[in-house]
Amino acid sequence: MTSSTRDLVDRLAEHDTPHLIGVRHHSPALAAVVPTLLEAFAPEVLLVELPEESGRWLPFLADPDLVAPVALSGASPDGDLAFYPFADFSPELAAIRWAHRNGVEVRPCDLPLAVRGDGRRGERQGASPLTDALRRATTGRDGDDLWDRLVEAAAPGQTAEAVRRAALLVGWALRQDAEGAGVDPFDLRREAWMRRAVRRTDGRRTAAVIGSFHAAALLDGPVDDSSPGDTDVVTSLVPYGFALLDERSGYPAGIRDPEWQQAVLEAAGDPGAVEAAAASVIVRICARVRELGHPAGPGEAREALRLAVDLARLRGLPAPGRGEVVEAVQTVLTHAEPLGRGRVVARAAGDVLVGHRTGVLAPGTPRSGLAPAVEALLASLRLPGPDSREREPVSLRLDPLRSELDTWREVALRRLAVLGVTYAEETATTGVGGGDALTTRWTVAWTPATAATLPVAGLWGATLELAASGRLRARRAEREQKGGHTPTAVLADLVDAALCGLPESVDTLLADAATVLPSAGTLRELLSALDLLDRLRAGHLPGTPGDVLDGHPTLARELETAAVAQLDGLAGSEDVADARALVELVQRHEVHGLRLEACLRRLADEGAPLIAGAAGAARVLLGSVPPSALGERVASWVDGAGTPERRDVLRRGLTGVLAAAGPLLETPEALSPLLDRVEGLADRDFLDRLPALRGAFTSVGPAARARVLAVVEQRTGERVDGHGTPDPELLAVWLDAERAGVDALRAHGLLTERPARSVGKMPESPVAAVSVSGALPVGVRWRLVLGLYGERPAGAARYAAALDELYGRDRGEGALRGDLGADRSSPFPDVREWSEELRDLFGDHVREEVLAAAAEGGRLEAALEIDPGSVRPSVELLRNVLSLAGGLSESALARLRPLVARLVRELTAQLANRVRPALTGMQLPMPTRRPGGRLDLPRTLRANLATARRDADGRVVVVPERPVFRTRGRRASDWRLVLVVDVSGSMEASTVWSALTASVFAGVPALSTHFLAFSTEVVDLTERVADPLSLLLEVRVGGGTHIAGALRHARSLVAVPERTMVVLVSDFEEGGPVGPLVGQVRELVASGVTVLGCASLDDRGVARYSTSVAGALVAAGMPVAALSPQALARWVGEKVRG
Amino acid sequence: MTAPRQVEPAEDAYREELAFLAAYDSGPRPPGWRLTPRAVVTFVMGSGDVLVLPKGVSVDGVPSRLVISTKFVGERALVERAVVTLAGERGLLLVGEPGTAKSMLSELLAAAVSGSSQLVVQGTAGTTEDQLRYGWNYALLLAEGPSPRALVPSPVLTAMRGGGVVRVEEVTRCLPEVQDALVSILSDRRIAVPELSAPELSGPDGATVHAAPGFTVIATANLRDRGVSEMSAALKRRFNFEAVGPIGDLAAETALVRRQASAALERVSAPFAVDDVVLEVLVTAFRDLRNGISEEGWAVERPSTVMSTAEAVSVATSLGLADAYFPGDRDPLSLLPGHLLGVVRKDDPGDAARLLGYWDGAVRRRAESGARTWRRLWELRDVLDA
What we know:
- The structure holds 2 protein chains of 2 kinds.
- In chain A, strand 12 (949-950) and strand 13 form a beta hairpin.
- Chain A is built from 49 helices and 20 strands.
- Chain B has 2 domains: 10-243, P-loop containing nucleotide triphosphate hydrolases (Rossmann fold), CATH 3.40.50.300; 250-383.
- Chain B is an alpha/beta fold.
- The model of chain B has no long low-confidence stretch (mean pLDDT 85).
- Chains A and B meet through helix 13, helix 14, helix 21, helix 23 and helix 25 of A and helix 3, helix 4, helix 7, strand 11 and helix 16 of B.
């Protein structure tokens, strides 16, 4: 400290009009010495830095029956607010209590709330040479709190006067630096008012307990002599809690770790007592960590305390401060694992250091706070309140975008809803054309329940706005404590905050969204967030101006970038919604970039058919490939669709392309190759492909199909359903005759030409609309592909009816219109008949596909029609049948069992043949020249016999130049394999493969295999693992995803970590926060378990999964891959063999 | 005159500073320490100002005024905690991403505390218990039977005898059963040699080697090796953990990269001619990709590869060498995207896509805001998507 600095501090300390006690709002060091200081100075008047209006509360605040913490708050009509939480360690409270005990007059001296105006302007960063110098001298941590270092940590063992001087010094240094950039005018106004309060003491002996920042300003300066106008400011005194007082709760004017501050206050400046408090805190943290299931014994506690005390000594402090305790706990207990153990320790430290004390007001304190505020507000909004005569619920229709009163009503009702106050209920409304409604409907009533729930909500704040934002803040803090934000929760809160008109909460949550969504959001969550941003920007949410987004200018772009990053994880998707999301993302015009292009190219080339189709269409929309290229790709699917697998590719691929149907139709050249094929195929080929084509077109909804039809009509130049189509009966006769002829030719080997051509020549165009290659006219074909339910094109009515059975139920745009006048009756009395018709019309192989598709669509009877004896076993079929099994009665299940049994048996046998070789063999100790294991004496002797010689005594001595060792042998037995399988989605192929693979592993003697199926609950199906049939029938799909819970259960199965493998099969779309999930993975990895994540376990090797969460797990030590069962078996074999 | 060395060990490189600090601070020292704890902190963090020996103290070959250079760029509190841990004779484990100067810090601490940083065990999958306890000269062992003469002490055993600091580098790369040899050493502070337990064979200490006061272990572990061979809970409980993070400040990191890259070029007596602007762009890109958030606060998708300061130094050195050996060929900035791609694309093919995402995001935005170098980088984007 230079001498000039010392002089200045001397001047401050010796000043006695008033006597200056510079404090910080919460400061155990000052709170402990304030009574002593006041005793010594013995003032007649005490000034405290509280707004004038708070005067009426001072007697209640000083009441000995009051238990801190409590909070004093005030709001002027325009919402401007001051908030003063008090704890025992608040110097102001200590001073007020002292004054009350000693009968000294207390006067608030801060600027009245009524004249505060706009308050503080934004933070201004100036150079801070003085505080920097002080900081360098005292502390080693970056961004350290100067006050904590110089006043709090240094205080134990000091005299009261020394503490006061240290506080004045810090305040002065902060002020000096602030003056560099100019002190906030608001502070200057407050100080002018404080000087006026000093002047009005009229020379009586005065002490001022004020912020140490302001101390220097009380020496001299202009005085504010204006008299405040009469404004009604509402002040209130309410009980408060340590949980809210902690700075991290998000409430204003808090301090970190109140329980620690309380302990320091109780130590009353005695270094030994502070050290004892540190010891007690550390021991309690260790105990809490043990309670949470992690080791932390007295040894660690002792070391943490030693570290804290020695650190304090190294830094020249009399006793460890909060910083030293926290550092020591971190170093000794967290093991440098910020996510796993670190979170546990942080939670334990939070529980111990924050504490749960709550305050109680003294009896006789007047009623104040939320309830009166809400009653007044309701009255001013002309809504039913406690005094209104109306007892019946009132129906309201609000139009917040037109009427200002309605805006305020809407916001008030939303806020009450967020607070959980029983008052108003929203009735659902739908806007014109199914869009967002702009008006809202409510049923409102003031009931006794309202009166009962309001005071409960009053804990969050003293006005409706404060309470609502407090509630949202509490939800946020709760999430943080429970392990972190989830995209879903953040989005839900964001919507609530926006509807409640709380721009500040929206701002915070937008910041959360900016961190959480890119790192953990799925593509759909990202898109819905983008949609919400659009609505905010457009100002469609009453009470929240669009300019809240100004603070986050890059958020939309970041979300788009994150969405692009998610695309990689779509490669294996078979969900149309994913295809639509992909197209929707591409259509947001801002997102174009290198990465999107590269990613779409990869998806189009390597993705599963559905997503490849959508990516191809998206590339056309972006203009990176010409539409004709996509057209050719689609046409090639049609050409290749000769086998059931290829037809499946056609159906899924075309569905993907059509996800972009609307915009694509504007570029007909993308569709024309497809149109050519449909028109040019032979009848038989066309009919083979018809179910696939129709299935794909069904996905887009009738209106879009009608548009395709329009394109077709334009092309062919006539109405396809026009007159002049050939007589259906005649057509059927031609077809039959023609096929019989061709078959006869083929049977005799006379058919050399391609049948399509020969067929094509036979009906010599009786009508122009008949296609060149087949008997079914172009128009009829398109009707069959695109037709609405119940439409029976002349000449193909039976085909249409047969397919209507499957594809008739339309959804999507225009579906409702299809209802009108259409024939909704099922053309078939039962499935058996339908199935026979299918066989007649399409042949056996196509029939099976159609039935499987029907089974997939929920038609159980269709599955029963499939013949177990002749069916071609495939995982697809098994999966479709199984997806029905969930809703079956035992008797229905019994009928399905033979089919499933055969499928499972065949598939397991096939799989076992492929997988077993990977699982055999083990390793024995091997001889080696590398020193490592034990010395292999016999081998060493044999290898060194050449050096044998007799020494002087005649003994034989061998000089072992080349010693031989044995490698460490590994026991290959007793490995435990835990398969943790996500069954939250539909019955995924991965689930089926997992069960089959598990049953193969169950047959390997060296492995004990466990099978856990999980959604939000975990089911241990281990005892059924050897019997895949019952295993598969036992699995119930559906529900949310809670991977962390499943892994926690898996961890309980770990007996010998070194010989345990945990294989997680999931899409990684975790429903809970990502933090605990990563923590579980780290725990597993840290305990030595071998872990593997399978984004998919099937024979394709592409997966659909959340790349962000998977990335986090990879960083936590769990490799993630899309594997085939063989690859998994190879991996298991390698691990077991070591 | 010894033969020139590629790298000087810390105790030789800073011989003068160590001797000065020993004379400068004569306060109480933990047993076996060469310096006081405070002086060790000063040695690592640097003194900033000129230090003057107290009056009446003078040591041969030591100047009376000296500025202690800054060797470790990072938080002072971290070094303080590390020193206090060692002063308590407890094991210190430094963990962090690769390239965050963990090994350098452990070397400096060992040199300052016990005057030697040479007792070191490098952890690999092939490290055996012999290297942590003791081995045998097998020829002697077979010829003469077990004797103190045939015993080959490990660096750990040597440090125990002398009361010094032993360093175990990359401890998590050792197999778990090998790591666990450290458990008994850290808790019992002795190593029993049962082969020498026959009374006529054991030396003055008997068959057990006891640790002299001052013995302690500094281990380093790499966060990226987590899961390769994780430490057992028993071993973890015997260490205090310090996480060494990347450098927090852009200017400090740029300066460090420049300093180290220049040093590498000095050895071939070529000037380091890479522009500061290019270096800053390089370091900024590394920091953005490492932190997952750009200087401006934009989110950046992190590649799975480590983007350490050490990697930045090697890229800067490559740029400098390219400029020194192929002068006027191409400007260093145009080489930068290729180098970045080389650093990023190591194991996960998805990382190349993430780099593209970085170009789409931060690089493009900076280019749009008119920064000339970033605009040039944006123009060079074709290098990446090849």
